[in-house]
């Protein structure tokens, strides 16, 4: 199977370094989420992998070969970087047929991917009449056209309705299950958490993390327990006696960091404290991501007042 290999990749634009010494691999059989703040270098890296820019130093290869060296590249790599790239005067079907002809892909394949992406009913409408979500589906159809071993998608859920987002999630999982190499750039943390097996995280052009998603989350977000009681004074006293510090929230519940549900439950029971609610607060990808990248964002807004 084919993997994406990035080795010591560097790209400068007019003295500004967009990516700096990146080294990572995207392996087949799993969905790799490609994360980072705006300006982190994700789009530049994807362009370098696809031969749309030339690196200042280092290399980016697909199955050991640079993208420009691939014959009939759509048969090897499918990519969506810009959903607006299709010519507005062509129909969706003709757009795909032109791409197919350029890579010796049979015409019937255009109709197959139009059906697969839910665009069969609008295949003969001009692209300029498509909504953003329809253009996004057309871009995904183009990426699937050559039945490639490698699929690279930049913000594939952009503009899609809830049904479309679920469909993309299922598509990505299926592609990985078939043994393909799948790289997906996204700013939607909750959505990435629903499909990614592995993460590559950039910040200011440098590699911050290259790790399985579950390990990334659990390494950066401390366990926390949520508890609600009718006797908060007794609860706080019991927790303090065992070295736990509880934080009260405006809606009346308490949180205990670095704690497990079983431990807090046994502690409360031994102290005779009535517990109305007791649950583990699940660590999220969003929490872990912000913990890692908070100092790496190029553009940040002022925090909102409560």
Task: Report on this structure.
- The chain is elongated.
- The mean pLDDT is 92.
- The longest helix is centred in the middle third of the chain and has 16 residues, at 162-177.
- It has helices at residues 42-49, 92-102, 107-116, 132-144, 162-177, 189-195, 213-220, 232-241, 261-271, 285-293, and strands spanning 4-13, 16-26, 30-35, 57-62, 77-80, 150-154, 181-185, 198-203, 206-212, 224-229, 246-248, 254-257, 275-281.
- With 306 residues, it is of the alpha/beta class.
- The N and C termini lie far apart (51 Å).
- It folds into two domains: 4-211, Rossmann fold (3-Layer(aba) Sandwich), CATH 3.40.50; 222-282, 2-Layer Sandwich (Alpha-Beta Plaits).
- It has ten helices and 13 strands.
- Keywords: ATP-binding, Nucleotide-binding, Transport.
Number of strands: 13
What is the average per-residue confidence, as pLDDT, rounded to a whole number?
92
How are the strands ordered across the major sheet? 5-6-7-3-8-9
* Shape call: elongated
Number of helices: 10
| Helix and strand run | EEEHEEHHHEHEHEEHEHEEHEH
Biggest sheet statistics = 6 strands, mixed
CATH class value of the largest domain = Alpha Beta
Low-pLDDT segments, ≥5 res: none
CATH superfamily of the largest domain: P-loop containing nucleotide triphosphate hydrolases
Q: Which class best fits the helix and strand makeup?
A: alpha/beta
Return Rg in Å.
Answer: 24 Å
Query: What number of domains?
Result: 2
Give the fraction of residues assigned to helices: 25-40%
């Amino acid at each position: 199977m084919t993997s994406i290999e990035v080795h010591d990749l560097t790209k400068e634009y007019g003295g500004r370094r967009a990516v700096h010494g990146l080294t990572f691999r995207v392996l087949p059989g799993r969905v790799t989420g490609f994360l980072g703040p705006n300006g982190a270098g994700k789009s530049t890296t994807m362009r370098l992998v696809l031969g749309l820019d030339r690196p200042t130093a280092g290399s980016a290869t697909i199955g050991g070969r640079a993208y420009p060296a691939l014959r009939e590249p759509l048969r090897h790599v499918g990519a969506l970087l810009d959903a607006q790239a299709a010519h507005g005067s062509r129909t969706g079907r003709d757009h795909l047929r032109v791409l197919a002809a350029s890579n010796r892909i049979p015409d019937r394949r255009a109709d197959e991917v139009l059906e697969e992406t839910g665009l069969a009913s609008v295949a003969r409408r001009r692209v300029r009449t498509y909504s953003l979500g329809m253009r996004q589906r057309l871009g995904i159809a183009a990426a699937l056209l050559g039945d490639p071993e490698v699929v690279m998608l930049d913000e594939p859920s952009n503009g899609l309705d809830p049904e479309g987002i679920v469909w993309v999630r299922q598509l990505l999982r299926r592609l990985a299950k078939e043994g393909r190499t799948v790289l997906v750039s996204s700013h939607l943390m909750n959505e990435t958490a629903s499909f990614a097996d592995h993460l590559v995280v950039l910040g200011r052009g440098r590699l911050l993390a290259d790790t399985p998603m579950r390990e990334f989350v659990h390494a950066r977000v401390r366990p926390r327990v949520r508890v609600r009681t009718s006797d908060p004074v007794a609860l706080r006293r019991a927790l303090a006696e065992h070295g736990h510090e509880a934080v009260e929230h405006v809606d009346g519940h308490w949180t205990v960091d670095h704690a497990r549900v079983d431990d807090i439950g046994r502690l409360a029971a031994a102290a005779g404290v009535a517990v109305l609610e007791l649950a583990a607060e699940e660590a999220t990808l969003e929490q872990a991501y912000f913990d890692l990248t908070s100092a790496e964002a190029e553009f940040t807004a002022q925090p909102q007042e409560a």
